[in-house]
Amino acid sequence: MAKVFKLEEIKEHNNGKSSWLIIHDKVYDVTKFLDEHPGGEEVLLEQSGKDATESFEDVGHSTDARELMKDYYIGDLHEDDRVVKPSKPSSSSTSGSSNVPTGSWTSYLLPLAMAIAAALVYKIFSEKQ
User: Fold this and answer.
1) Residue 30: exposure state from Cβ atoms within 10 A (0-12, 13-18, ≥19)
2) What is the pLDDT of residues 101-117, one digit of tens each?
3) Which residues sit opposite 77 in a β-bridge?
């Protein structure tokens, strides 16, 4: 069973002597990797002691980098400190959203109606001149 760490403990490891990161609720001690990191140690130190999941994913790390992470894994983030991320936004939380799937024929109906109306208006006004 993996060791479990509280966020308060992880926050203490935020420097070059002891650098821990949280990525996908897993805790990594990257202290020995600071000098080897291709992006420079500053990148890791900036994220040390906190959740670096978003930054890690934004960079688009390779499969090799993800494999290398296993060498630095030391445990998991405590359940109480995990942030619940919604899988997809609910329709009530998004203003003006509809339940029509993107790309369906109904999403083309309004622009088509507007184009027909514009063509009719153009025809009517051009015939009067």
Assistant:
1) buried
2) 555 666 677 788 888 88
3) 5
Residue with tokens 């998991």: 76
If phi > 0 it is left, if psi is from -120 to 50 it is alpha, else beta; for residue 9 that is alpha
- Gyration radius of the chain over CA positions: 26
Q: Is residue 115 helix, strand or coil?
A: helix
| Predicted TM-score of the model (pTM) | 0.64
E strands in 2-67: 4-5, 14-15, 18-23, 26-29
Say how far apart CA 50 and CA 52 lie, in whole Å: 6
Rounded Cα–Cα distance for residues 111 and 115 (Å): 6
Number of CB atoms found within 10 A of residue 86's CB: 7
